[in-house]
Amino acid sequence: MGDENSIEYINELVRGAQGGDENSLGRLYELLSVRVYRYLITRVSHRETAEDLMQTAFLEMIRSLSRYKIRAGAKFTTWLFQIVRHRLIDHYRRQKIVLPLDETVESHPDLQTDPAPPDVGESSKQVLSALGTLPERQQTILHLFYQEEMSPSEIAEVMNMSAISVRVEKHRAINKIRYLFVEGGTTI
């Protein structure tokens, strides 16, 4: 079948799931649930909430799968992250909360799927703290760009904005983080 993270492999699983193959659907879940969970846990304060949101998003994905159209060059993960982001926005609306990224990660260090060395160091804490000062929109853009390796056009689709706006917001976020580091006397 090929590389498990390749567009072709994921599209093959999507075709199978659309055709009723439960193994393909299960494999899609196995491949993508870690990425979705990692995104959600950096945005909500409790493991259970992240798990609930993930399950809700995957149930919606399953219900909507028949309407998903595979297109050349398009990523299924972009479509899935649109669903995930909408479930997260619904959660924020119901809870009327905003939780900074740094508090979430620091309160759940064991949940990071890309484990850092045992001694993360002061600079990593400063980066997390700087990320926590950004608006949620900029945090999401940076996460999707650096963690999920999405292109600006894919992020634009997920976030319902133009690719140019994504680039501008990403640039502003990076500049703000640089400013905070310069102001604090730290170099990046």
UniProtKB/TrEMBL annotation:
Domain RNA polymerase sigma-70 region: 28-96
One annotated GO biological process: DNA-templated transcription initiation
Domain annotation RNA polymerase sigma factor 70 region 4 type: ranges: 126-176
Superkingdom, taxonomy of origin: Bacteria
Keywords: DNA-binding, Sigma factor, Transcription, Transcription regulation
Pfam families: Sigma70_r2 (PF04542), Sigma70_r4_2 (PF08281)
GO molecular function, one term: sigma factor activity
NCBIfam families: sigma70-ECF
Similarity comment text for this entry: Belongs to the sigma-70 factor family. ECF subfamily.
Protein name in the entry: RNA polymerase subunit sigma-24
